[in-house]
Task: inverse folding
């Protein structure tokens, strides 16, 4: 029959069309499979893509993020507790910032201003102007304090005053065989505890009693200890008198 040869051609054509359609479908499915993971990871942070994405900072991805931003929760290399306390909470000596826990004593490179009350006795502080920080007396700091006096540290406390060269009272020395002395208050005190001094003779023991010897209690009423040294810087800079020889000596 004239129309029979067309049948096989039509079938062949149909088969070719089906094969092409299947191939296209397979390609689309393969492409979808490859694309799908990319879509799933579209919102993920990828460190190393040279983009500083949201969620990345110089701390967790320095390769992508090179600029420090205060408030991002990362204390970057250019940030300190001084300029960004919200990100930087730890004081680090050498960062150029004198943090709350640092002082000139433990970090002089960052802290160079002495502050009274920080627990550090700085170079410009002394027990005279900041006793809370400076508890140790240091001769040469310009402050006459605590244990210092004109005998132990003249550079801070000044030179000691000279002792008197004349006796303030003859009560201070041995006057034997004479009894009594020329200072009534002192004489009454000494003779009150030792009548011999007024009844018989003002001997060496009487002179010693003017300085408080033998528990006389007369030192405060007799001018034999601490005389001639008014105007001294330190209260312990006193002269004493040898009751037997009358020689005066500076004592501390």
Result:
């Amino acid at each position: 029959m004239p129309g029979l040869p067309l049948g096989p051609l039509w079938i062949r054509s149909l088969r070719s069309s089906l094969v092409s359609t299947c191939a296209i479908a397979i390609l689309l499915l393969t492409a979808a499979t490859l694309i799908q993971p990319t879509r799933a990871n579209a919102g993920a942070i990828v460190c190393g893509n040279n983009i500083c994405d949201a969620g990345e900072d110089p701390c967790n991805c320095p390769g992508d993020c090179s600029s420090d931003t205060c408030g991002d929760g990362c204390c970057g290399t250019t940030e300190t507790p001084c300029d960004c306390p919200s990100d930087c909470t730890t004081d680090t000596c050498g960062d150029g910032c004198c943090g709350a826990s640092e002082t000139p004593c433990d970090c002089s490179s960052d802290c160079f201003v002495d502050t009274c009350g920080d627990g550090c006795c700085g170079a410009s502080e002394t027990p005279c102007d900041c006793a809370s920080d400076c508890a140790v007396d240091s001769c040469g700091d310009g402050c006459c304090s605590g244990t210092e006096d004109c005998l132990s540290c003249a550079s801070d406390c000044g030179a000691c005053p000279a002792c008197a060269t004349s006796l303030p009272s003859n009560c201070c020395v041995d006057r034997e065989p004479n009894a009594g002395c020329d200072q009534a208050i002192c004489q009454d005190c000494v003779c009150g505890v030792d009548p011999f001094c007024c009844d018989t003779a003002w001997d060496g023991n009487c002179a010693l009693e003017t300085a408080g010897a033998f528990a006389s209690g007369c030192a405060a009423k007799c001018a034999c200890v601490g005389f001639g040294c008014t105007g001294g810087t330190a209260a312990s800079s006193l002269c004493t008198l040898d009751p037997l020889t009358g020689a005066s000596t500076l004592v501390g």
